[in-house]
Amino acid sequence: MAKLELRNINKIYENGFHAVKDVDLDIEDKEFMILVGPSGCGKTTTLRMIAGLEEISSGDMKIGDHLVNDVAPKDRNIAMVFQNYALYPHMSVYDNMAFGLKLSKIPKTEIHERIDKAAKILDIDQLLTRKPKQLSGGQRQRVALGRAIVRKPEVFLMDEPLSNLDAKLRIQMRAELIRLHNELRTTFVYVTHDQTEAMTMGTRICVMNNGIIQQVSDPKTIYNKPANLFVAGFIGAPQMNFIDAKLVEKEGGIFAVIEGSELRLSDENASKIKSGNYVNKEVILGVRPEDIKIIDADNGLKVKVEVTELLGSDSNVYFTFKGKQYIAKEDSAINLSYGQEIQVAFNNERIHLFDKESEQSIL
Ligand code: ATP
């Protein structure tokens, strides 16, 4: 069992900086949990506290059923894979992988068996006699993973392990890590600032900002039901569009009034607004680029095309409305030119509304 429990964990560095604030998180056995957030949000500090490389200022850290606050890193049955791989340059791949096992006095034949198995899983069995400098970035990354696998840890901790790879290799390694997780059936905790990596790899995602957990959920829920404005803006590329709006009640429905234009909310959303006492309140309306469509009718928002970015079958269309820029994702078959006036409509089933003061989602 390698369930992790983080209870009210805080980290205050010696200079007084409060980097991690009241983090309360359960990571289930065999889960692939991603800690994601912008630079400086406290994700590496959290991971290092799990590893035991950083002292906890307050709170309780449990691995399995054991309180590990004061347990040394080597006794936590975890393995950590770093961004820079940290391989020993003068040792062969085999010796790099064997190093920790020799220190633990594991018999030679078992070391050999474990390395053989891990090398096959990672497809590096042809490289065992090479030195790290004779390997590509992706191969080095595999060796770093191999060195972790042979220790048979209960928990794998990874800190941006793919950030030194080029874009193509990164995508390939993402798929390999998912496969590896399925094959090893152990708990993975993975730190990244890249929301695409988080969305594609995690069984669950923990979004952090300013040392505080913003939301913990599966990727679909994080994307479709962001808990607040920060999560809504951080997850998704291109970013969700945000527009100031006022909610008014008329003609038996609820309308979001945006700069004089009106958008009728779905009946389900209207009843949530009424029960939450949001009628006549100023809110922030969020709409993802794929939920804005160009329409032929005359009842849409009149906007001006700025730039189009061809992505393949889709294009990102940047347009301005009342002096502010927004992005829509449209079918590339539609021909648009700079400055062209078009009408767009928001999919009112898929809009998001946020409280202007608390920035929490209200739908
Ligand atoms: P990045 O993606 O840039 O690595 P992160 O989310 O992993 O960011 P952390 O490395 O956990 O962030 O750092 C969190 C905050 O704590 C940052 O503001 C950082 O400057 C600060 N910090 C990190 N280490 C120390 C330290 N030893 N002393 C003081 N402050 C620190």
TrEMBL record:
GO terms for molecular function: ATP binding. SMART domains: AAA (SM00382). PANTHER family: MALTODEXTRIN IMPORT ATP-BINDING PROTEIN MSMX, OSMOPROTECTIVE COMPOUNDS UPTAKE ATP-BINDING PROTEIN GGTA. Gene3D superfamilies: 2.40.50.100, Nucleic acid-binding proteins, P-loop containing nucleotide triphosphate hydrolases. Residues 4-235 form the ABC transporter domain. Keywords: ATP-binding, Nucleotide-binding, Sugar transport, Transport. The keyword ATP-binding applies. It comes from Fusibacter tunisiensis. The keyword Transport applies. This is Multiple sugar transport system ATP-binding protein.
